[in-house]
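Worked example 2:
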Amino acid sequence: MRDQAKTRCLRKPLRAPCLVVLVLVLALVEVQSLAAREVAPGRNGQATRLRIVTPEGPIVAVLYPEAAPRAIEALGRVGSGVGFEWASPHGEVRTGHLAELDGVRAELNGESLGLHEDRIADAGEAMEVMQQEVLGRHGRDKRTQPSARFRTWIEQWKATRRPDFLVGISRLELYEALGYRYDADVVTRPVVRGSVALRASTDATVQPQLVFSLVDRPEQTGRWVVVGHVVEGIDLIRQISVRPLARATEKKGVLADRVPLSRFELEDIGAEAAAVEGLDPEVDVEDAHGEEIEDTSRRVE
């Protein structure tokens, strides 16, 4: 459209009506371009702070707009009725179901984490991956296969009972075969102590629970969408993580008493403020003697 307007106008000396048309066309193109580049409606790519208030005190996290703009936009719509409902002692705490996150695409970039360079080195590592990742996924749901490559691996395993075909493949290839999807337009961060994250599903969406991690989780790096980092309240999260679980559902990690959140608010902050908060994150998971607590978290996929 822009090129046609230019052609018509340049065939003869520019006149006022033609100039008006050309200016309007260029303005329309620029508006469309800006709309396409918009990172997250309502957040506009600004550094964002998440403030949560519990009966015991506040929890504050700085969010990363470049990591998950769609998820952060959805978090900005979360209203009342939210609470912490799931815990793993000294491992993590999760909110209950956040309806605003239903159907939100999982924004992950495997190459920004170096997953394309992290390759399965030998038969021993291949056997571990086969048993824990491939057969684990197959055992949880035999009716569906996440990819053609996954189906081929299962057939090869059944034929030989050897995982040699996995040697040399990258973690990125492995996770894609398991059904995870990746996007080159975001910057994904590793899952570490203090990370605020969303678990990705193999249908390319996030699970609608916000996770607050108390330990490094390298096995989830590339599979969890890290949206931010706790800068205040990590001790409170740890205290919540060791509270009693509901007896009938103890293995599932459901808290006996839900922790209500009276406030769940996002606010835009300046880049300078975000940098200051990010320099000294309150993420040290230590006991009263200053020793690092062992990761006793239960892996729940």
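Residues 2-35 form one domain. The first strand starts at residue 48 and ends at 54.
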